[in-house]
Amino acid sequence: MKTLFNTLPLLIPMLLAACSQADLRATGDLGVVIEREQGSAQIVNTSKPAMLSRIEGLGDLSHASVVFSRDQRYAYVFGRDGGLSKVDLLQDKLAKRIIQAGNSIGGAISQDGKVIAVSNYTPGGVKLFDADTLEQLAEIPALYGEDNKLSKVVGLVDAPGQRFVCSLFEGNQIWLIDAKNPRQPQVQKFQNIGKQPYDALLTPDGHFYAAGLFGEKGLALLDLWQPEQGVKHILQDYGKDDAQTPVYKMPHLEGWTVAGNWLLVPAIGRHEVLVVDTRDWSLARRIPLAGQPVFVMARPDGRQAWVNFAFPDNQTVQVIDIKDFQVVKTLQPGKAVLHMEFSPRGEAVWLAVRDEDRVMVYDTETLAETARLPAQKPSGIFFSNRANQLGL
Prior knowledge:
It comes from Methylomonas subterranea. By secondary structure, this protein is mainly β. It has one helix and 34 strands.
């Protein structure tokens, strides 16, 4: 008996260690699926598709987006109600949540992972927060015009050099925000860049920021290596003589829409994707599609682009082979395919099928379905490898 008592202090740590080993999970295997109507998010395993847990109490997620901490442990969820939620992916819990504005549509995390930036509709502007504590570090009102009106802020992305870039919808501006000192950020403003920039993308190398224009034809392009050259317009002649058509849903530029030398842009209100040669920013081709594209996302190797559509064609997904810019497959995953996300190396793609209450996984080589997971009105899908990518 004495021997047993003597060995207990040694056995207990070993037993606890064994229990903790059984619960270990790798952060690179994790992702988040937004369940928009429930105000919840699933934490999922992406290598062996499965739901691990559900995090509730995240507020209005009708237009939610997610970024990840540098170590991939935390997911920061930006809600439409101005909520900023920090989710612990390893402990399956909501670590902290604040309401930082009245209406928010997205955010970004700085290059060093220490600062969270949020773009707001109400009040218009950008706020900076400490990534660890969610303490507010700075507020930058999106003021424009002689009477200092507030503009909605869209297209917020992180950029090299501890910077953020965003666009002002009503203000017709692009802002380059230097956040090296996040309590006193410096803003470089580019005015009259085009009417109503509605969304934007950063090229994967962090070189160019392109904002789509809703109020006129074309894109506004800023060279972040040479910002002193100002903003230039590209594609301003595209569709200028075409009849105006109704827009059922604003397309999104955010996503992996750059494949090699090609930029693939969803055409507003039209059944086509535009292919832009990034060497001279000329329109190289127009690819006819089944409906009005919303997301055009390139597989990580740049060989394919997957496209989903606005209503009434949102049950359809089309796959474009970048080699010859041809649609090689039309899929019918189910009603209301809202978002897509590729696995880190692109062998699989996950689809959020809202009205079928499921997430579907496809093999990108065979284009066959390989798995499906139940989800409550899923919308955005975000994998933790985004932590190591610019502009996402």
